[in-house]
Design a protein that fits this description.
CATH architecture of the largest domain: 3-Layer(aba) Sandwich
Helix content: 25-40%
Order of helices and strands: EHEEEHHHHEEEHEHEHHEEEHHEHEHH
Radius of gyration: 19 Å
Largest sheet: 7 strands, parallel
Shape: globular
Number of helices: 14
CATH topology of the largest domain: Rossmann fold
Structural class: alpha/beta
CATH superfamily of the largest domain: CofD-like domains
Bound molecules: ligand FO1
Length: 320
């Protein structure tokens, strides 16, 4: 491998933050070396279509067509379809662009024809020229339900509809007990040379992936070192509600708070320079630390963090 990075790298990812690091890995290593296992518990139905936000965010990002500002959706997309829906009196609360609609239409048609989600996504990714493998955590329907003082909310109602304002008192992943890993998920974990938990929300992005039957156990058995990148920098989530969730669920809102959630699972933890004072406490959990610039800007920055993260993971391969 010319990059010097391994040829079998696994990333566990949610949406925007996960997609950025996954893109960094694809840029720093051979794109074909990367398999991304993606959360599907944010998936839902809208206008009769199956929407898979995290899978699409990873697909558009690795395909180089993601909106660079939002991180989700397609760059330069128009909203004529939503405008037409609004003219019929609909409230287009979830912003689906016109090109994005094409993804949902085709996916829904193919799912209705009986094809599994993993197969449908592989075909869509192939059409976009993506050399990395993007796997849903499961082909089975799983839905995050967010518990709040006002009652249970479907994930996108909480996240987009109510702008993450509600206090979160817990979660439930409906369907998780019946879900089995998508084809390739367990094999890719056991074959991996390095496994990276992306800087995604530990509760609602990485959490559901770990809860699919057999995945946590496969990670426990994996010969590859497992490293996580903190989604919390300087006591604040880089993006999204992870900080608020840590607080309301009684955890410390810091990289240490996230490291505690991953204790026993990961061998290493990557944190930002701002959090360097947390190194002794994190290492006391039984993991090594890498202190670096953990906030990613553009592709060069993503590739830099990815290369540092994968290289940091590697010494444990050689460890006796
Ligand atoms: N996030 C928003 O905050 N508002 C939106 O209207 C929105 C639309 C959307 C459409 C397609 C898609 O793939 C993602 C979209 N997202 C939107 C992001 C998504 O809700 C979240 O990033 C994830 O579910 C959390 O990981």
């Amino acid at each position: 491998m010319t990059s010097g990075l391994p040829s079998r790298i696994i990333a566990l990812a949610g949406g925007v933050g996960g997609a950025k690091l996954a893109q960094g890995i694809a840029l720093a290593a051979d794109p074909a070396a990367l398999t991304v296992i993606v959360n599907t518990a944010d998936d839902f139905d809208l206008y009769g279509l199956r929407i898979c936000p995290d899978l699409d965010t990873v697909m558009y990002t690795l395909g180089g067509i993601a909106d660079p500002v939002q991180g989700w959706g397609v760059a330069g997309d128009t909203t004529r379809t939503l405008e037409a829906l609004a003219a019929y009196g609909e409230d287009p609360w979830f912003k689906l662009g016109d090109r994005d609609f094409a993804t949902h239409i085709l996916r829904t048609e193919r799912l209705r024809a009986g094809r599994p989600l993993s197969d449908v996504m592989a075909a869509l990714c192939g059409s976009l020229g993506i050399a990395s493998r993007i796997l849903p955590m499961t082909d089975d329907p799983v839905a995050t339900i967010v518990r709040t003082p006002d009652g249970d909310l479907e994930f996108q109602e909480y996240f987009v509809g109510r702008r993450q304002q509600d206090e979160v008192t817990g979660f439930r992943f409906a369907g998780i007990r019946e879900a089995v890993p998508a084809p390739g998920v367990l094999d890719s974990i056991s074959d991996a040379e390095v496994i990276v938990l992306c800087p995604s929300n530990p509760f609602v992005s990485v959490g559901p992936i770990l809860d699919v039957a057999g995945i946590r156990e496969a990670l426990g058995r994996a010969v590859a070192p497992i490293v996580a990148v903190s989604p919390i920098v300087g006591g604040t989530a880089i993006k999204g509600p992870a900080g608020k969730m840590l607080a309301s669920l009684g955890h410390e809102v810091s990289a240490l708070g996230v490291a505690r959630l991953y204790a026993g699972l990961v061998d290493g933890f990557v944190i930002d320079r701002q959090d360097a004072d947390l190194v002794p406490a994190i290492e006391s959990l039984g993991m090594r630390t890498l202190v670096t610039e953990a906030i990613m800007g553009g592709p060069e920055d993503r590739a830099r963090l990815a290369a540092e993260t994968v290289s940091f993971a590697l010494p444990t391969i050689a460890a006796p």
